[in-house]
């Protein structure tokens, strides 16, 4: 099981997504915890590393947890994604291994990983994604 965190950032009923250098699919920004980090600390570190955006720790809210086949991994290797919303301070600018950031709508669902598809479905049902 791969344990990951994700930052759900919505704007105009679209979701922020990123694409790593050399990759063909988009994912929801986030990453893995370092030893001893809380979800909030790890998410803030990952988002600042990937998007240069500082998350307001007081604004971090748990959104939901989703599990699916891990992209690019052997069959049966699952990813568990704990998702959070938060307010950010600063501008979203791709950095580190990120080649592109983009705002996706539900019609872009086929461009994302399996676990992100579940998140897209949940947001669509709740009327948060068009």
CATH topology: Nucleoside Triphosphate Pyrophosphohydrolase
The CA-CA distance between the termini, in Å, is 31 Å
Q: Quick one: biggest sheet?
A: 4 strands, mixed
User: What's the architecture in CATH terms?
Assistant: Alpha-Beta Complex
Count structural domains: 1
What series of H and E elements makes up the topology? Answer: EEEEHEEEEEH
Radius of gyration: 14 Å
CATH class: Alpha Beta
Query: What would you give as the CATH superfamily?
Result: Nucleoside Triphosphate Pyrophosphohydrolase
Structural class based on helices, strands and sheet pairing: alpha+beta
GO molecular function: hydrolase activity
InterPro entries: NUDIX_hydrolase-like_dom_sf (IPR015797), NUDIX_hydrolase_CS (IPR020084), NUDIX_hydrolase_dom (IPR000086)
Domain Nudix hydrolase: 1-128
Protein name: NUDIX domain-containing protein
